[in-house]
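re: that chain from earlier
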Amino acid sequence: MTRSTQGWTLDTLKHELTRRELVKGWIVSQEHVHRRERYFMLDGPTLVTDQDREVRSQSIHAKIFVRLGKPGRQGEISKKLFPSLPLGPQLDSAIEAALQTDHQAWSLPESLPKDVPQVTTTDPRMAEDLERVMGELTGKIGIAVARRRATVFNSAELFLSVHDHETHLSNGLVHRSSQSRIYSEAAYSYSRRGNDGRMLSDEYLNTRWAVNLDDIAIEQLFDETSERAEHSLDVTKPRTGRYPVIVDADVLAALFASQLTQLSSMNAYHGLPFVKPGDELVPKATGDLLTITLDPTVPYGADTAALSEHGLVQSPFRLVDSNRVIATATDKRFADYLSVAPTTVRGNIVVAPGTLSQAELAKQGPQVIEILQFSGLFVDANSGTFGSEIRLARLHDNERKTITYLKGGSLSGSFRENFRGARLSSRAVKRAHFSSGGSTGEGYFGPEFALLSDVSIVG
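^ sequence. v structure.
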């Protein structure tokens, strides 16, 4: 049964859209979110809750397609609707705005999906009792903070949420799903007296997302943050040059997510950079050859989904096999535009691992730089270039057999160039990321580390 809102129901909304003669079709989505937030700090030696919030929210979005009276053309608009306001004027405004647009016509699937797969997206412990889980994780944070360290605990955050989502399409499809999300953040600082007698201090902040409680290691997050804060003052700037560089799964997830746009029919249609089936993903690759699958069935993945936004069943879909592009991700819209069959477009990025350990990766050159954290990674999806200031890194000098810490300077690279001789670690890990306000996340399951070749570093 469709949930009611304060002023009108989704059934009322669908009825109103149906009776509007100009409306060709629609996608209506509603999300209910139950969210718990806690912010932690120290009061003397005691860990205290600085802020403690519980939020329940609802949002409704409608994507409306209208007839323009032109052969092969239609208008489109996406609009947030507010249950507290009268529905009629909101739809009038949305339809009027859609009439001012002009797009090539396409349509939602004519038939409803059969044999919709069951996917695992919500931690049952969070769905059953979010408050109890908050208490359990708060206890783990307390234990982590109480551990004696050379650093000083500054603050922490813990957000838990369960997102109940339902989608209604004008072809009659009604699909309901849910997802749990966990976000944890820790910040530690380290102080010492410099050679000139002045006190020096720096802070290190670390974050982690997950969908399942078993994938969020609180103790490991706090230990890692404290350890890196302790090294944040014993640093030098890197020397300008080109190095083999180790990046971790969080960086890899961002780089692969950006690269996937060049494997989509959207880029092909719009004339943007596109790698077609049969081509090499990385030209003249000599390292570990990449195999990439879009997998919407990974248990507790950030982008695990049974159906696409357009109501099509999603299943594992290999895009790249040993560096050779073998398929193109195509949703229903661009399938209609290009007169091809639609494919899977939702899913977690699954990358086949390599054969080397992290320690072995660090020995693949006279000097290897291991990035521990960027100040803020910038990735250009069209050019495949990426870059950032180095927040903290390790320099593995295999000739002197030393490890020193680096900070500052900048890194710049290119997916097509620096993955040419890339080596991948043998251990695979799961990563998740959600942006504020985003209804879907980015999921990654692949090598924990990769060694990129010939990366430019400016000190």
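The first strand starts at residue 23 and ends at 43.
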